[in-house]
Predict the 3D structure of the following.
Amino acid sequence: MTVTALTTMVGSGLVVMGVAVYGTGTGVSARQAQSVWDGVYTAEQAQRGEPLYQQSCAECHGPDLSGGEMSPGLVGGEFVWNWNGLSVGDLFERLRVSMPQGEPGSVSRQEKADILAFLLEANDFPAGDTELANRTGRLAGITFLAQQP
Ligand code: HEC
């Protein structure tokens, strides 16, 4: 199977298949080819994430994600450029180990994936057909790009 065929498959949402092929060692570039511009969460997932965000994050980061006295904003230029070139896995890992600040264990892994979907939506990255996974390893192949390539 060619890399181009793989990329097409991953791009068309057959992520499970792409990951399966990854095991053969040829899928690396297909995984790297995916970015936050490829519809990596669903609108429904972001909708689930919003009330979770309001409940566990808004107190510090603001109900509109614009940040608070001590906490950075999670929407707009400064935020997206902070993460530019890193992976969605890195961002997920950041939430997983350190947020909500002081009690990261109070929000489950799945809830954090849903909140992350909401953050992506708030930053105008497009929704797609596949939910954002709740495993760092699965998210490591999605590059966070501030600007549409
Ligand atoms: C008690 C206040 C507080 C709560 C609640 C909280 N955060 Fe934070 N958050 C902070 C502070 C302060 C920072 C910056 C200092 C640091 O990095 O720890 C931060 C940093 C971040 C960053 C990194 C921002 C960047 O530009 O790199 C992200 C992403 C984030 N928080 C997401 C969340 C999410 C999602 C939640 C809810 C699950 C949450 N936070 C809950 C205080 C909070």
In short: The CA atoms of residues 14 and 56 lie 32 Å apart. Residues 41-143 form a domain with the Cytochrome Bc1 Complex; Chain D, domain 2 fold (CATH 1.10.760.10). The chain is about 50% helix and 5% strand.
